[in-house]
Amino acid sequence: MAPVKIVTDSAQDFEPEFLENLGITVVPLNVHFGDESFKDGYELRGKMFYEKLESSAHIARTSQPSPWEFEQAFARLSKDGSPVVAITLSSALSGTYQSATIARQALPGRQIAVIDSKCASGMYGMIAILAQEMSAAGKAFDEIVASVNRMCENAVTVFCVDTLDYLARNGRIGRAQHFLGTLLNMKPVLSLDKDGYVTAVERVRGKERVIPRMVQLVKERIGEGEDVYLCVSDANAPKEAAVLKQQAREAFSVKRFFETEIGAIIGTHTGPGTLALLAIPV
After folding, report:
1. 156-281 is a CATH 3.30.1180.10 domain
2. What percent of the chain shows pLDDT beyond 90?
C-alpha cells in the first residue's frame, strides 16, 4: 500500500525546507509590495520581511496559490496511486482552501482529501507534521483524515497583537471589530473561533500581564491535567516568545513542543510583535 502523502501551504509558518525534509509538500502563498511579488517562505521570510513591512512605501498584501499549483502537486504525488491529504489555512482567512478544492476536483479518481484546518500559523503546521508521522508509521488514509479533522476541531489558538491596524487594514479583523479603538496601554487578546475567524477575547492592561493571561486562557480551554501538543509562534518578538515558551512549558503537560516564527502571510495581517500560543489536547 502506497504511503499517504501530506501537503500543506506556506502560511503554516514552519520553514518549507524543514517540512520538505520530513516528506511534506509545501505550496506557497504570495506576498506583494506594489509591483513586487514574493513566494512566501521561499523568497521572503523572517527579519527581511518585517524590515520590508515597516519600511516599504507600499502596503503589503497577500494572495493564495492558484488551483493549478495545487493540481501540479496533487498530480505528482498521487501519480503512483498514493493517497494525498492536504491541510490548508482557514478558509475564513484565505482562498487557499478553495484553490486546493478546485485542484482536487480536477483529478477525479485520485484519493485526495482537502481539509480546511480553520487554523492559522504554526497550529496547522504542527498538525501537518503529526499527520506525516502517522503516514510514516503506516497509518491508513481514512485514519489520518479522521485524526487531522479531530485535531483541527480541538485546536485552541490564543494570540495578542501590538496593534489591530494590520488586521483591520487587510480585512481580517473578523469578529473582533468592536476591539478597534482599543484604549492606550490595553493589549488585545484574540483567538480563532471554531469557524476559523478572528474573534475578540479580552483586553489586558499592560504588556507584563499579557503572557500569563494567554497561558491561563489556553489552560481554561484545554482543561486541567491534559497532555498537549504545544506551539509558540512570534512575529519578530523573540524575547517575548522566550518568556511565553517558559511559562507555557511550566503550565502544561507538554507531550510535544514546537516553535515557529510567524512568516510573511500571517505577519502581513497581524503585524510585528504578535505572539501566539497554540495547543491541541492529545
Report:
1. yes
2. 84
